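hi support,

uploading two proteins for the ticket. first:
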Amino acid sequence: MKLPEARGEVSAVLIEALRREPGRRVLPDASLVRSADPYGDDLQLALYLCYELHYRGFDRVDGAWEWDPELLRVRAALERGFLAALRADVPVAEDVGSALDEAVLEPVDAEGVSYFLRDEGELWHLREYAAQRSLYHLKEADPHVWVIPRLTGRAKAGMVAVEYDEFGAGRAERIHSKLFADLMVDLHLDTSYGRYLDAGSGQMLATVNLMSLFGLHRSHRGALVGHFASVEITSSPGSRRLAEALKRAGAGPAAVHFYTEHVEADAVHEQLMRHQVVAGLLQVEPDLAPDVAFGIAATGWLEDRFGEQLLGAWRDGGSSLRVPLLEADGERKAGVTGSQDRAVVGAESSRRSRVGDSKEWAPE
């Protein structure tokens, strides 16, 4: 995975540091971090870079950076800003049961990304959606593994059961990240890990950063359980709509299969998360209930922001991506033409606007 382009001062200083050996660098100072928008592209990219060192790392970046004390101090400052903003902005239900019930409520007005894609989405919309989601789905369930050693008894057993399914139940070809890569092949997308980091929006980065933040800290184990419960219990209805969208758009069978697999698997996972993991955790550690509720609420809140970013761009006739897919991958060679090109015009216009308005934007 290559280091991405910077999106502001914090990420620029951090990227420049990562190109050098630990100990021979200048890292972002505290005042620079404090001044960054906690939800903005610059801070979210910087945080994503710090977290990615705990996953697969970056090409030509020294592995010693993962536990560099100075970098960990920078990461802690980034986390404090992000978490403080979420604590201030996210409405949280009074109890876990109410939080779970609110999470599974389907909107009466039938709005949202999966509804749009099912009813109006074209193939280029689905390709953009997959490119953005690849920042998580190519490492699906990895952030949640960190909570397993922090659980006991019923909660641990239930969590391992769910993760066993996520990782293919012992079959490499059924690992969910592999199934998503197969979906990307059907949509003529590059399956390289992290390929679309430059293209992904800050809103998408925030959704991935949330689970990494919760997963890396034992103190946030309750919030991570809430996050994973929210993901699993809300997955089936949306996955069904996305499968229908892909069928209608003429995507290949592997693309459709990824979401039909989640319709079935996550219906079972919902029950395991509710009655084994969440209930088991709170039976042993009832004081973690507010953290579980916060994890559920923060997950939904950030997902809503991401959905608003996607729909806002698409309904304006433009791309949701920072880098158009045609520029990123040369899709004309893959035979993707026609209606998809309309998104490129909007994306190019959007990109020119960012170039004029902010020095943070840098094209590939």
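and the second one:
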Amino acid sequence: MPTMADVARSAGVSVATVSHVLNGTRPVLPHTRQAVLDAVDELGYTPNTLARSLVTSRTRSIGLAVSAISNPYFTEILQGVEAGALEHGYSLLIADPHDDPVHERKVAQLLHERRVDGMIVAPSADPRELVSYLGRHEVPTVFLDRVIDDAGGSGPQRFDQVCAENTEPTAGLVTHLVGLGHRRIGLVAGLPGLSTTAERIAGYRQGLTAARLPHDDQLVVHGDSEATGAERATGALLALAAPPTALVTANNAMTIGTLRALREHGLSVPEDLALCCFDDFAWADLFSPRLTAIAQPSREIGAQAVRVLLERLDMPDRPTRTVRLDCTFVHRTSCGCSDSGQRARPSQPSHSQKGTVS
């Protein structure tokens, strides 16, 4: 097996120069760096990752903690994280906190004990123990998808965050349904305590306010971000004395549960009840009717989280930031519009500039 000394001889440089090129510990002239890389390729040299970590105090690994990895949304985020990590020569250690605050803290400790260089975490609805652990041990961390209001706060350890826009896209779905003549619009919201839940409820209310429609608390139910909960919550909406004529579901899993409930009640979409969804997914276009949805840039969210984390590792003292990425309105037929003469085509839901940093 070729050694670093063999690479140095082949490239005509010192072993120290080879080390600097492979570990990124000191700038090297471009032509020298290329000579080293050519020698590595020609000889088939494989760096000793363990030895390199002892020299650099880095393992070139990232811990990823996201719940419901089976959810297509998080699966695509994982793909984005993996691609971003591999692009920069990092490996991934993946764990599922199951949206449980106690398990979430244990997962963070487990990843930390594996000496990951930093973590990317989708926090639970009660992340206090997680934040306390990460802050106490000064673990470079990017919060993903769900944000924490005081993540950039006054403590010694602050956190970067990457997520999608939630409020304005949800308001856009309500505006679209109002444009189709609906006045009683229900919302199947996510798990209380999650920022995504709060922001999508805020967007729903923003859409009603813009249309000068009253807020009816009975029309907002919580499906707890999963299909079974959404099925139960949708049933509660349908049991109202004045049920909604249109629904907005706040994630893809809850959309499935809502569709089950409508089928059980013998209702058709959009003939009996119009439906718009937050979260697009691969087979949304195969449903009958095809689902009108907000598509999140899930892979880009994952890739962006890696970039933000690596920037933090390179510049530990730079100010924290929250990056929000734009969503896309995908207009299909579950809202009541036809594929050809689409009725009351809405203005594109308003978004802030892509990659907004706050």
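thanks. also noticed: Confidence is low (pLDDT under 50) at residues 341-358.
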